[in-house]
Design a protein that fits this description.
Elements (H helix, E strand, L loop, with lengths): L1 H27 L5 H26 L6 H24 L2
Length: about 90
């Protein structure tokens, strides 16, 4: 359970700027405070990578379960969406 907990934290933290930017993009057709979202994204990405590797280290100690694969998949999708976010935040 310890490894999964770190994966959940990492995934939630990774998705935070994506949800904030996506919500403002849907409402106003532009990202509100793009500089703030860019710095928040960078911070969340770095911290989530640390939490992600702590989660991976915890998962290596026990059997991999389906719920673990779900969180790994959500993290991967979020990481892929970061490329789209950088395209939206460019001037």
């Amino acid at each position: 359970m310890q490894g999964r907990r770190w994966l959940i934290y990492a995934t939630g933290l990774l998705w935070l700027p994506l949800v904030m930017a996506g919500g403002s993009l849907l409402l106003t057709r532009a990202v509100a405070a793009p500089l703030f979202v860019a710095y928040l994204s960078l911070f969340c990405l770095v911290v989530s990578l640390v939490l992600f590797w702590m989660g991976i280290a915890g998962l290596l100690r026990r059997r991999l379960r389906v719920a673990d694969l779900l969180w790994l998949g959500l993290y991967g999708v979020g990481a892929l969406l970061y490329t789209q976010l950088t395209g939206v935040l460019r001037p």
